Amino acid sequence: MNLEVLSPAGDYERLMAALNYGADAVYLGRERFGMRASPQNFDFDGLKEAVRISHERGVKVYLTCNTLPRNNEIPHFQRYVEEAVECGVDALIAADIGIISLIKKYAPQMEVHASTQTGIVNYVTARELYDMGCKRVVLARELSIDEIAEIRAKTPKEMDIEAFVHGAMCVSFSGRCLLSSYLVNRDANRGECAQPCRWGYHLMEEKRPNEFYPVFEDEQGTYILNAKDMCMIDYIDRLHEAGIYSLKIEGRAKSAYYVSVVTNAYRMAVDHYMANPNEKFVLPDWVREEVFKVSHRKYCTGFFFGHPKDSQYYETGGYIREYDVVAVIDECRDGRIYATQRNKFLAGDTLEVFSPKTKPEIIKADIIYNEKDEQVESANHAMMKFSIPCDKVFPKDAIIRIQK
Predict the structure, then answer these.
(1) Which residue has the higher pLDDT, 221 or 93?
(2) How far apart are CA 327 and CA 337, in angstroms?
(3) In Å, what is the CA distance from 388 to each residue of 366, 397, 400?
(4) What angle do CA 185, 175, 91 make, to 5 degrees?
(5) Rounded distance between C-alpha atoms, residue 93 and residue 62, angstroms
(6) What share of residues in the chain are helix, strand, coil (percent, to 5)?
(7) Strands 4-8, 25-28: parallel, antiparallel or unpaired by DSSP?
(8) Taking residues 316-321, what's their average pLDDT?
(9) Which of these, 263, 323, 334, lies nearest to 292 by C-alpha position?
């Protein structure tokens, strides 16, 4: 059984990043019913085009409707499903039992995936959802790899198992959280989470108003709800042996660069494993290093290997960011790289070029020419066109980055 690399596509740019860097399938959302309520989601025309482009490349498209909708939203759902059918999406991801029943009513042939929001932690629930018409279950993040293996052993083989293997984790059960609703009236279960688990907290004693005291887990700090990011790239073999079919990367709100790098890393890791599945899986160091070249929190393995005793990060709610994207390549010809600037860099800087399924290559920007072919000291204007001498040839849209 092959493994599916499933990547997030928050907008058209991130969709293309996922397609260019090796996703087998993408998941995306529309203006409503999705767990990422942002203006970057796809309207009807955008969804239709996204499906067309993806299918041309043999990539499947899964559309989210995994919120917990209220009464006033239900009348709009039939049209949502009809438009998904019209656009040709491959599956709908749903969490609410009523919504699942409506999908089967409005589009009996539509494949349904039971979202992680459903909270699937045992084989009985997985089997029941399969009997209701769900082709796939997206398991709760709170399961160990042994529990997943038991679910696989005790469910119909025709049912797919999907699990999150990389990205942010929130302090909640399967993504169901009330913190955001309580604190800022933004419902996390309807795609509007303000991420209060990433905030720093203090105590205030009731008789001492405005006197705030740090909440110390230890001397590390006060971010008592802040979880590390999950990373399972070293354990592709264990995931496959447990019966997981789809490896899901979190991050519809992340950048196109993030989607490119992480998708590419898991694509290469899966291909490396599938080439010799009977041999001991040892990931090449340079592939593993890729997931550290995106903005991320400290990594952990979540609940896969038991209770995640080291999964909280108390020092800060921010990210580790060691690389910046400085340009995207437009073409290579006549011994030069022609590119469009994204962040400032200087003549003489050492750069790294990142392209699909290829080990990154180091280049030196000894000379920078602007669009008028004048030599300049830096590429310092947003989106400026420039060129640098280079005897290597890279594909269009390859990314140039620099270590900070």
Answers:
(1) 93
(2) 11
(3) 8, 16, 12
(4) 110
(5) 7
(6) 30, 25, 45
(7) parallel
(8) 78
(9) 323
